[in-house]
Amino acid sequence: MTYDVISTGSKGNAVVINDILIDCGVPFKKLTKVFKCIKLVLLTHEHSDHFRASTIKRLAKERPTLRFGCCKWLVKRLVDCGVSPSQIDVLEIGTRYDYKQFAVVPVKLYHDVPNCGYRLYFGRVRAFYATDTRTLEGITAKGYDYYFVEANYITDEMKQRIKEKQDNGEFAYELRAMNEHLSKEQAENWIYENMTQKGKYIFLHGHIDEA
Q: What are 95-119's pLDDT values in tens digits?
């Protein structure tokens, strides 16, 4: 299996795993080397760092037969971007969808808007993708080959940053990050419980301090 983390974090997210693009929150120019080879675009939620309307519109124009997979909460957003309903595969949480060369299963995640992750199957190779979630409790992916999971912040560092801002009377946007994203400690604990020696963990969505 091959993968390319084109961008990850609050400035934009896009990851290509084999011929699947997961999330599309970057300018189109960042996809110029890969967009002709993509066979499926999987989308997770509506936040602009994961769903950039202008890029999706351009993708739909450049690739009029390209398939877009998403859960029901993104269907209207896709249509508004100019994606034909005939190109959209509406996916249900927990249901497996076979695309001949690969299969996908959406996984429910927990954020401040409806969100999902994905299980990906390429023959015997299995991958798990999850970002923008406050917890992975109750979700298992034991013995998978690849884990694309966010580790957004280190808890003690984030708490110190929040305290400093609050002491200075500043707005601490980091409070939202702690409430809606997975910490490095949570991610590593979950990985430890699920990954075996054959697995590989690809760190996604690290926190970048704002000026």
A: 999 999 999 999 999 999 999 999 9
Token readout for 102 is 């690969």
CA 70 – CA 4 distance, rounded (Å) = 21
For residues 24 and 42, what is the distance between their CA atoms, to the nearest angstrom? Answer: 8
From 149, 101, 106, select the one nearest 122 (Cα to Cα).
Answer: 101
**CA pair distance 67, 61, nearest whole angstrom:** 12
Q: Is 0.85 topped by the overall pTM? A: yes
Conformational region of residue 82, where left means phi above 0, alpha means psi within -120 to 50, and beta covers everything else = left
Q: Report residue 197 as tokens.
A: 């020696």
Residue-wise over 118-128: b if at least 16 C-beta within 10 A, else e?
Answer: bbbbbeeebbb
User: Which pair of structure tokens corresponds to residue 155?
Assistant: 């808890």
Integer CA distances (angstroms), 133 to 46, 137, 154, 155, 181, in order? 13, 10, 15, 15, 5
And the tokens for 174?
Answer: 């980091």
Q: Is the dihedral of CA 7, 55, 175, 140 positive or negative?
A: negative
